[in-house]
Design brief:
Length: 498
Amino acid sequence: MKSLEMTVNTRRTNSNQNNEIITFLTIGAIVVAVMMIFGILMLMAQGGKLDLSPAMFYQFLTIHGTGMVGTAALAGTAVMWYFLRDYVDLSKKVLMLHLVFFLIGVLMVIVGVFSFEYASAWTFLYPLPALSAGAWGMAGALLYLGGMLILGVGFLLFYIETGRAIIKRYGSLGKGLGWDVIAGKKAEKDAPPATVIASTMVTIVNVTALTAGAVVLIMNAINTINPTFSFDPLLAKNLTYAFGHIFANSIIYMGVIAVYEILPKYTNRPWKANKVFLVAWTMSTVFTLIIYTHHMLMDSVMPKWMLIMGQVLSYANGLPVLVVTAYGALMIVYKSGIKWDVPSSLIFLSMFGWVVGVVPAIVDATIVVNHVMHNTKWVPGHFHMYMGLGALVMIFGFMYDLAKTDSQIRANILDKIGVILYALSIIGVGGGFLVSGAISTPRRWAAHFPEWMGPALFGAVAGVFAVLAVTIFSIHFIRFIKVRNKDIKTGVLKHKSA
């Protein structure tokens, strides 16, 4: 109880320093809505209701995938920073430098995609950036690759700073994961807070992922400028998916920090980091670095042991953190007398989304299933459920909680409708993709046969409602910003803890 009160008090003193966090979240909400619109347009084209040229379709596909993951990750870093700063000393200058690099990188990506028609999808698989069959030129490829590299540098600076702060406070990243507690050198009561444990894990995996991404981006850029420079395509694909899969996965691990911090406020019960919890996070740290290989199961030239490892560890990775977190969320809420509102409902809903989203991923990680399903819409079905109903819901829940904590504004009936609308619509979008995958509809195809169009149109309609829900969330957050700015201007900024 005492530690909870200290955390709330610390956050109160920081409430007039939340401008940067609010900026990150505002950008995130707006861009997510725009990326959803691109997704709707693609589904309408696949459903035969919109005449979209293949070139434009693949530009939309490229910006949708890159923009959605990048923006969700930006919002995830805001969640992680907001809570982690209560336990370690972080530099605000690094946070703002991260944002500057992000904006520069995004601008380069947008120009490369829409002004120079670059359209390789987010995967930029070698040698596609340099060999586009005339679909785009060197300028578009270099703008996209350079923009992605600058984005990555910004994120890398962020994680180097969080790693530095954790090491300074706890002595090492291993101690940040609680290894000394696991080894019995410290008591469980002295374990790091759940926020520090999750942040340490994300720091480790994302420094690794971003380094791999930087290597393959630079090699692609050199090959684009000088085609005589070549490198192993299999190595390039491994580096690309090591980067992309780990980085995208990390978003939910940043978002879950909001679960660890917000639910205890509502239930008045602390989230205890026992040995089982610590072991689960260590296992997830190791597995997350390795399981990208389930994206390579169709590559017969991959070493067989790596493919088997990809299947086995993909199964294993779905369990440790998810199980202890979902079980912990149920236990912390059970008979707590919690008063449900929009923030707590969204945070709890995210647990459901995480569980549901992981199931089709585990199915796809089975080698015999993967050979049939991986290049179908089953894969984006899993990802839309996992991200849309898991990670993004955590971020939206944090936005509502921040508004409640940092101002007197409260959610209204429209916001409550938005929660229901968002949950049903994302289930509709993800379900449409999963049904498409089940009937063997290929992913990344600009045109569909009539037999494939129904689920695509259903997903497009569901997507419209998802955009409406995100608009409701964004309006609430904009209202909060206006109220907060007015309170700051008049010197009567209010603080209220849940």
